[in-house]
Write a structure and sequence with these properties.
The protein has 617 residues and is of the alpha+beta class. Among the domains are: 108 residues, Phosphorylase Kinase, domain 1 (2-Layer Sandwich); 201 residues, Orthogonal Bundle (Transferase(Phosphotransferase), domain 1); 86 residues, Orthogonal Bundle (DNA polymerase, domain 1). Strands 1, 2, 3, 4, 5 and 6 form a six-stranded antiparallel β-sheet that branches. A three-stranded antiparallel β-sheet has the order 7-8-9. A hairpin with a 2-residue loop joins strand 5 and strand 6. Helix 14 packs antiparallel against helix 15 and helix 16 runs antiparallel to helix 21. The longest helix has 45 residues. About 5% of the residues have low confidence.
Length: 617
Amino acid sequence: MASYPTPSAYQEAVQFPESAFLDETLQNATPRTNVLGLPQPISGAFAVVFPMTDAHNQRWAAKCFLTDVPDQQARYKAIAAHLAEHDLPALVTFDYQQPGIRVAGTAYPLLKMEWVEGTPLNTWVRTHRNDPEALQTLATAWADLLADLEAAQVAHGDLQHGNVLVVDTGSGPALRLVDYDTLYVPALDGRESPEVGHRNYQHPDRTERDFGPALDRFAGLVIYTAIQATRIRPALWERFDTGENLLFRDSDFYEPEQSPLVQVLGDTEAMAPLMAHLETACYQSPEQVPALAQVRDGTAEVSARSREELASTRRAERSTARTAPRTPWARLALPLLMAGLVLAIGLGGAVNVWVGFGLGAAVAVGWAAGATYHYRAHPIVRRQRRLQHEADRYTALIETMERELETLAEQKTEVKSSVEARRAERLAEVQDEALYDKLKHHFIGEVGAVDGVKHRDVVRLKANNIRTAYEAAPEALSEVRRIHDTTKARINMWRSSLVQNYADALPEKLSPAEERRLQRYIARRVERMETEAARVREKIRVYEAERRRTTARQEEQPSLSVQRYLTHLLYLTDLPKTDPGPPRPSTPSTNGQAPADTVPERPAPVSEGPWWRQGTA
């Protein structure tokens, strides 16, 4: 996996848009800045976004990737081509640029997106949880959005609170979807999903192979149900909200009959029909989940008996370790191989040995290709590969965060060592201000008394807006035409003598107030970096915990080597006993507290000027 820049490295590059971006609009745009005057990033697990405002006051989101995603450019090209043929207001304009941004001389991809000024779905629902009319309007808008996506054969792939923004309009809430890394369009049919989505919204049995037009049905039903549940029983929000969900958590989907939330909603008369559909969906395969439109209009019928039969079957599959029956390929592999070899030997004896040898080689190669394909597609191998991919992804994220810590440590050292330079910079400005107060009272007419300076020279100085000794600086004087160089030298000597006369009146050090302000500024910058470092370390802790959980899942799952699979095809061994269901998720928290793996939010940006112009409070 290619190494990508850290958020801090991107932040440093975005300070200079004209050289960082290859897009002309972004080159002339201004990034939103934080308290330190640096570009303000919005960090995620796999990307960092910089809000930008262009010369026409239009806002854009410059999305910079933290990890390499295979086929990313081809995916976005296919997505853009399909969306151009359909009018989907919930999806925003984007432009995938490869390359798009330069960091330390190296070009990386960039996603330029239209900026959406909206509220994350869970925040909007929390704010309006006691407004049933607003929530019903939102639920209707959500159902309409899902219907529009299905009609256009589009699936987002990761519907969750962070990717759904609510924009308040005069006619009610409007929905916008962001983050299209997992988007499905027909041109991508047959590929795997780059990710499997947020675990608190996705089907418990979803894998990367579940990638099609029905991909959003389960998550869409979960969100619709959560909105309606909040509308009918708003008190549930305080009990089941974690900040990373919309009432439901992954464990509610794994065994709904044991979920306190599902039990409460199932006993609520107004929610019972909808909960019956959601419980059934938890035990169906992801592609069998009905569309939300079918659930709402009653065409997706479900009975308690069918739900219980599905639940019983899936519980047995998830809890019983068993030897999987042979697949059609596993039953036919050996007979096909033997038949092919017998035919090759027969042709070799009857026709020509080389014909037989060639046919035998073709049979062996074809059989090996078929065995390789079915081995990689086997559920045991696929699950191990998925878990290994997940573990590798967390490893890459940890490495990215560790590089971020190193960058922050370097910046912290640089800030601490810059005290003298900043003090000297400010002292030079204070001295210049004091010198201005002295020299502004010496008008340029005084230079006429200097030998060799004529009246016409004074007139030309005034014509060039040089009216005081302060303004007669050597840099300004060099721009004045039709004054001899010797005369300019005499004027410079006159000004220098005045500066020398006032040298003792200029401050030699900063005032105590300025010094305190400087120290406060340095301390504040260091504190901000330490806060950000703590946030990064917390991310590392969360990613390490997730990697350990993933590794534990790998160890719990059976493994299947190529050798054992081949001997299985030859009827010499059986496959390992397997639990075909997903690993049991963690127990949900119902006390309203955020889960332990919640990462603290980045501090909100604050606009300020240079340290010496900040308040003294």
